Amino acid sequence: MEQNFLVVGLARSGIAATNLLIEKNKNVYVYDSDKKKIYNLLKSNELNEKAIIVKKINNKLLNNIDTIVLSPGIKTEDWQEIAYKHNNKLVSELELASQFCPCKICAITGTNGKTTTTMLLAKILEDSKITTFVVGNIGTAFSDEIMKMKNENIAVCEVSSFQLENIQTFKPNVVGFLNISPDHLDRYKTFEDYKKAKLNIFKNLDNSCTAVLNFDDENVKNFCFSNFNSLFFSINSKIPNNLNGAYLQKNSLIFSKKGENIGKISLKNIKLKGLHNIENILCACLMAYVLGVSFNSMEKSLNNFIAPSHRLEYVGCLASIKFYNDSKATNIASSLSALKSFKEDIFLLMGGSDKGENFALFFNALPTNVKKIFVYGRMANKIMRHAAIAGYNSISSFENLEQAFTEAVKNAYENCVILLSPACASFDQFKNFEERGEYFKFLVQEILK
Question: Sheet harboring 313-318: ordered strands across?
C-alpha cells in the first residue's frame, strides 16, 4: 500500500483516518483550512504527534503524495482536478478503513432511516452473541475501531452519500438500501447526482454479496443487478413468488423464499412507531437473516429495542397533548413519513437551514390531520411562499424555535400532537440536529414542571 497520505479535513473522520494510518506506519500529512481547529487539536492531543501539519497546499507537497483522504464534509469536486493533475488517488475515510478491516461489513444506506436500521441490526447481532462494531455516519468513525476488530466480528456501518463519493474497493458483505428521495441538493446539482453517489455502494459487489432492497421504492427496487444476490422487503404487498424477502402482513413479518413461507416475526410488542420503522425493521431482519440469525432471536431483540433519540421520540404529555421530537427529520421525505405515523391532529414545528428542496412537494403531500404549521428560522420565508403557492393557509412564521413552540402550545387542544419534524437542516440556529432536539425537549420539560 502507498506510504504517503494527505488527510484533508480534520473533523471526526479525518482525525480517525490520520491516527489509523500512523498506527499502520504510514507517512501522514494533514490539512484543514480552519487554523483554530488545528490549534485546538494540538492542544487536546487528539491528533497523533507524528502527523505532519500542512499550512498550505502546493505542488511540491502534492507531487510527494500517493493518496488524498477526503473527510465527508469536503466537496469532492474541489479536489478532483488537483488529484488528477498530480496523479493522486482520491479516497474517502470509509474506503480507507475498509482496506484495513479484518471482518465482515454490513453497510446501510438510504435517504432516511439509516441510523435506526443500523442500531436495530447491531442489537440483533449483539443479542446473538456476535461482537459488533457500529461505525460510520452514525457517529463513530470506521477508522477509529479498525485496530480493535477481529476476523469473527461484524462491522455495521451507516453510510452516507458523502462517504460513498470516493470509494475504490469498498465491498460490503451485506448491503441494506432503505429508500431514496431528493436530499442534500445544496451539495449535489441534481437528484440524479445524489442518486449516483448512493449507487456507488453496489460498485464492487459480486455473487458472494447480498443486497437487501426496498420493493416499495421504485428507484431502489430497480437497483437489483445480476452480479450480486438480492432480497426484497415490502410493507405494501407480498413479495412475488420469483423473488426472496420479507413483507408486512397484518401485525407480522412474513419471510418467504420463492413463494414459500420460511419464517414469521410478530410485531405486537415492538415499541417503534410508524410504518417507516416497519421498513427499517424488515431491512435489519433480512440483513440478520443473511448472517444466520434465527427468527426467534430477532423477535426478542425487536421487542427490547428502544428508538434512538430525536427520531419520533416521545417526550411527554400535558393534559392529553403529546409531544414528539423528530429533530433528525432533516428533509421533506423524512418529515412526511413522521406525519403519516399519527392519527391524531398534529401541530407541526418545522424550519431551519436550506438543503435545496422544493417545499411545494411537501404541501401537496401533506396529510389532512396536520391542523397548523409553525415555521421558524432561515427557511421560514421560503416555506411560507411554497405554502401560499399550494394554497395552504394554516401556517404562521416565527423567528426561532422557542417562539414557534410557545404559539403551538397556545393553539393545542385535547388529544392532539405537537411534533417537531423540521424537514430542514439545523445549522441556522443549532450546531446539529441533536442540539435542536435537546432544546425542544428542554422546552417541553419546562412546561411540564
Answer: 313-318, 321-325, 417-420, 346-351, 370-376, 395-398
Q: Tens digits of per-residue pLDDT, 255-275?
A: 999 999 999 999 999 988 889
Domain of 236? 101-303
251 and 335 in a single domain? The answer is no
Among 174, 169, 182, 181, CA closest to 157: 174
Q: Residue holding cell 395552504?
A: 392
CATH code for the domain of 237? 3.40.1190.10
When computed from its CA atoms, the radius of gyration of the chain, rounded to whole angstroms, is 23
308 lies in some domain: no
DSSP annotation of 148: G
Do residues 350 and 423 touch, judged by C-beta distance below 8 A?
yes
Query: What share of the chain has pLDDT > 90, as a percent?
Result: 84
How far is CA 95 from its chain centroid?
A: 18
In Å, how far from its chain's centre is CA 425?
13
Judgement on whether residues 58 and 114 belong to the same structural domain of the protein: no
Residue 30's CB: how many other CB atoms inside 10 A? Answer: 24
- Is there a contact between 239 and 258 (Cβ–Cβ < 8 Å)? no
Report how far residue 318's alpha carbon sits from residue 324's, in angstroms, rounded to the nearest whole number: 12
Q: Are residues 206 and 293 in the same domain?
A: yes
Tens digit of pLDDT for each residue in 26-66? 999 999 988 888 888 877 878 888 999 998 999 999 999 99
412-425 pLDDT, tens digit per residue, is 999 999 999 999 99
Question: Rounded distance, CA 65 to CA 28, Å?
Answer: 9
Specify the higher pLDDT residue, 314 or 308.
Answer: 314
Domain tally, the chain: 3
pLDDT of 1 above 60:
no
